[in-house]
């Protein structure tokens, strides 16, 4: 657990929601979740999944991501759809942009958006034109 004083629990909840959005769109750094969860617990997040994640240094990536998903759901911070998670993430990126980071942040966000569009187009094409046997 960090040696810094607890922050307002709203900060922790905001970070959990941001990380859940990133998890849903494949951008969360699972390796950082144990340390982040320790901070959330220190900030006052009283949740079994948060405590398990904070104590889970030996957990694999899938287990950490599953605990984040469970934590977000139990705290009412989950998203109904990937589209909603992507919109939340986009708004967070825009809020955090500075003049120096705008170009790189915009490129990163547009790449994730275009990947999602490509996946959707491929799914549509595969439904319209199934493989021949």
Tell me what the structure shows.
The protein has 133 residues and is an all-alpha fold. The chain has six helices and no strands. The radius of gyration is 17 Å and the shape is globular. The mean pLDDT is 84.
Give the overall shape. globular
Helix content, binned percent:
55-70%
Broad structural category: mainly alpha
Model regions low in confidence, pLDDT < 50 over at least 5 residues: none
Order of helices and strands: HHHHHH
Number of β-strand runs: 0
Tell me the major beta sheet.
none
Number of helices: 6
Beta-sheet strand percentage?
under 5%
User: Which whole number gives the mean pLDDT?
Assistant: 84
Separation, N- and C-terminal Cα atoms: 57 Å
Q: How many whole angstroms does the radius of gyration measure?
A: 17 Å
Key terms:
mainly alpha; 67% helix; 133 residues; single chain
Task: Give a short summary of the structure.
This protein is an all-alpha fold and 133 residues long. The chain has 6 helices and no strands.
Topology:
Blueprint: H1 9-24, H2 33-42, H3 48-54, H4 61-74, H5 82-96, H6 102-128
Helix pairs in contact: 1-4, 1-5, 2-3, 3-4, 5-6
